[in-house]
Amino acid sequence: MHPSRLYLLAAATLWSTAGVLVKLSSLTGWQLASGRSLIAAVALALALPEGRKRPSARGLLATFAYATTVVTFIVANKLTTSANAIFLQDTAPLYVLLLSPLVLGERPSRGEWMAVPVFLLGLSLFFLDQLNPGQFWGNMVALGSGVSFAMCILGLRATRGEGTSVLVWGNVLAGLATLVPALEGPRPTAMDLGMLVFLGVFQLGCAYALFERGLRETPALEASLIILLEPVLNPVWTFLFAGERPGPWALVGGAIILLATAWRTLWAASSGSRPPAQEET
């Protein structure tokens, strides 16, 4: 296998560890969101010096959307199952389809519009499982994370060349915005601190560096399919190490969303266009 594909597989695997670490940590969602982002910002700024440049005015919108995404993803993981959090965030392509004509002037193909009802079907199944009030609101936060992730994707496409700056400064913004509620949480244990460092340096920072390196020699189509490994592995790690079982309808809904994403990507390729791979959270 070509090294570039190994880089992408490694990035997807690192991304997939977020759910289980959030579940195992005794820290609050605010503490994890703040600490992870601040550590990731430092790691990315050191590894990718070009990211230290401040984003443009248009880039600030993508920066805000990215910051919202990484915070809501962590909070959702604390409130609902990790499978629900990652699958619902992966509804972002649905919102990109709906908003790209307005934001980017790009009209979706017929095949992409055909994927919309498939996404909606998968989305609706998440709410058929028996949910406690916390899980319901966690699902709603995860849905919001999908919307903000879509806005981040649109922002990055509208401000090409600023991706690294958006990620560095987006993590700075996310870390500082959640710092006050994070200070009110419990005192972290040594294990909590270790997991927080892993989340910031490896799960977010190093994973993005590997992703960027892998994209240099891998077609966007293939890259977007390879990183679908992340939402597949996320609930697996959480089940094996934290004992969390996703609901049966959530598994069916997640499978439908993954298949719809793969179908949309393959349809775009067969039509002669290749969508850019997406930075993960």
UniProtKB/TrEMBL annotation:
InterPro entries: EamA_dom, EmrE-like. Keywords: Membrane, Transmembrane, Transmembrane helix. GO terms for cellular component: membrane. Residues 6-127, 137-262 form the EamA domain. The chain crosses the membrane at residues 29-48, 60-79, 85-104, 111-128, 134-154, 166-183, 189-211, 223-243, 249-267. This is EamA family transporter.
